[in-house]
Please model this.
Amino acid sequence: MRKIVFLLAGLFGAHPALALAESFTVTDDRAPIEISEVSRLYIDGTLAATFRLDDKTPSLTKTIEIPLGRINHHYALCGQITVINPEGRAETHQVSSEGTLNRPEGHHLLALGDEGFTDFFLRDPNDPEIAKHHPGHAEICASPVS
Model:
């Protein structure tokens, strides 16, 4: 079977590794009180997508490629969110979290934050078993120390 996949990939001009990939989608939406947001999604320690949201781009959906046949994937979601506080001033929050995705292929996940902009996580509204959130900050999101 594997030889057939590589042969078909070669015939159609695709890289063989791409023929052995599956995917899922992630949507990140800007909340009503957000001015802007820049967030990064890491899958298994590798940057998979960057979302840049503002008044011109209030929502983005990205397709995330994952290796064929792998069941669980570690994710980390890192973000810098600028909001208007109750006093009308802009304030920026660094948010992050991590978790595990269980068979995410073919699913549509949402990047969600809590109301206080202190936590950031993935969720499939149709199947809560797909994404397991581990509260706390993700190490990969920490700023490098020089």
